[in-house]
Design brief:
This protein has 490 residues and is of the alpha/beta class. The chain has 15 helices and 13 strands.
Length: 490
């Protein structure tokens, strides 16, 4: 790694000075003794950095300025929906009666009223998500989108076991999110990849050849990772149902259709949603996330325990007596704080607000796609939904410019790069999702940066292949960390 425009970042251990302290303990004049089991005592003091309080504050404050997030800049990471999160949802989630609620408090016994508010948030969020998706019921347990996928596939498997079906394969388009085949494989299924046709959609003729009595179901994202909606999605679901298969909807791209179309109306039986994407809760940094799973009426018995149910006396409680359930997916309420934030967001927007979400997501994507279409190669030169895929033009490639060079050059211009090299069916792909919360001015600035990069690719390609220059870390080896994993220093 070579230095750039910023100073080299030092590890906090490198700043350590022996004997330096942030605090000084005052000797206690209170007599006391503590008897500790010698087996639990260290043989030597822990190897911790020794710094003053000022050193510590400056270290972590400086590190925070090196982070990039939606609150600091445009983040067009395709298929990730990195949009602004309203701060009112944070304020509600921080209310003491929510933030300080212990998950072990009883639901109906003594002190049970303390949990009724939290249970009602989960119950009402379930009702609202049913309305938006056309499902009959949801579980809030899954802790992320991929966790939701696995939950959905486990429900699919439970359904087939209950029916006595011998199903072994799950069909997945070649443009699918990587977690789709991974989830199906973890659940014990053989994964069959279905190719895309000339329009960037699942090839229906190829699908027909793959569907047979072994087919447990299909996993489909629509719009897909190319930003294209499949107008024959109902036909696909009907084909899967003809062999008693389950149609699974990957809801990662739901912001493109939310409020305007419901997966349940297309024929899907299982839906997972990413509350930390479509419904504006914190996203990135590895979590926390929330991936609720909704199912049609016939699959309700297989939902994981526990479920929030309303009793005859109007109180809410967690229900565990579910003989056909797939069992526990996560402890307690799942990531309750994320569900709470999403509930606030749902109430804020309402039906008309969600119409605006999908409208602006599609408008922004097509506005940006149009501004770049004459300079970059478009994977599919037609109307898209929430995102689109481009590649370096032939002229750029002749100068040795790759997608990674464009991504690195964007960092120098204050923008987070789009997703690169995915979907893998497009060579040198760059998947751009402007999201619905960004302004025209921001999109214009990004488009100008992309056009400038295109000009540099022709005139000064070495400027791009040497980017970024404004960061403390320039271009680490793209595969070294994967090939030579070293966790000894962590």
């Amino acid at each position: 790694m070579s230095g750039g425009g910023m100073n080299e970042a030092k590890l906090i251990f490198e700043k350590s000075v022996e004997g330096r302290r942030a605090t000084q303990k005052t000797p206690s004049d209170v007599g006391h003794s503590v008897n500790l089991n010698p087996d639990y005592l260290r043989e030597a003091p822990p190897e911790l950095p020794e710094l003053s309080e000022l050193d510590v504050v400056r270290h972590f404050t400086e590190l925070s300025t090196r982070n990039f997030g939606v609150d600091t800049g445009f983040y067009p990471l395709g298929s990730c929906t990195m949009k602004y999160n309203p701060k009112v949802t944070e304020r509600i989630a921080a209310l003491p009666d929510f933030a300080g609620l212990h998950p072990l408090l009883p639901q109906l016994r003594l002190g049970g009223m303390l949990t009724q508010g939290a249970l009602e948030v989960i119950w009402r969020t379930d009702l609202l998500l049913r309305e938006l998706t056309g499902m009959a019921g949801f579980t809030m347990q899954p802790l992320a989108g991929a966790h939701g996928e696995l939950t959905g596939i486990m429900i699919m498997a439970a359904y087939h076991r209950d029916r006595g079906n011998s199903k072994t394969t799950v069909l997945v388009p070649d443009s699918a999110h990587g977690t789709n085949p991974a989830s199906a494989a973890i659940a014990g299924y053989d994964v069959v990849s279905v190719p895309s046709d000339e329009n960037g959609l699942m090839d229906l003729d190829a699908l027909r050849e793959q569907v047979d009595d072994r087919t447990a179901g299909v996993m489909l994202t629509s719009p897909n990772t190319l930003g294209l909606f499949n107008p024959r999605v109902k036909e696909i679901c009907d084909l899967i149902h003809s062999v008693d298969g389950i149609a699974y909807y990957d809801g990662a791209n739901m912001n493109a259709i939310v409020g305007r179309a419901r997966p349940g109306d297309f024929g899907f039986d299982i839906v997972h949603l990413n509350l930390h994407k479509t419904f504006a809760t914190p996203h990135g940094g590895g979590g926390p996330g929330s991936g609720p799973v909704g199912v049609v009426e016939g699959l309700l018995p297989f939902l994981p325990v526990s479920l929030v149910v309303k009793r005859e006396d109007g109180t809410l409680a967690l229900e565990y007596d579910r003989p056909k359930s797939i069992g526990y997916i996560a402890p307690f309420y799942g990531n309750f704080g994320i569900v709470l934030r999403a509930y606030v967001y749902l109430l804020m927007l309402g039906r008309d607000g969600f119409l605006g979400v999908s409208e602006n997501a599609v408008l922004n994507a097509n506005y940006l796609r149009t501004k770049l279409k004459d300079v970059y190669r478009q994977a599919y030169d037609r109307l898209c939904k929430h995102e689109f895929v481009i590649s370096p033009s032939k002229a750029m490639e002749e100068k040795g410019i790759r997608a990674v060079d464009i991504a690195k050059a964007l960092i120098d211009r204050g923008f987070h790069p789009p997703t690169v090299y995915f979907p893998t069916i497009v060579r040198e792909s760059m998947m751009i999702e402007p999201v619905e919360t960004e302004s025209k001015e921001t999109l214009d600035d990004f488009a100008e940066a992309m056009l400038e990069i295109a000009r540099l690719a022709k005139e000064q390609p070495e400027v791009l292949t040497g980017a970024p220059r404004s960061t403390s870390v320039r271009r680490p080896d793209e595969t070294k960390a994967a090939k030579e994993l070293n966790i000894a220093s962590l």
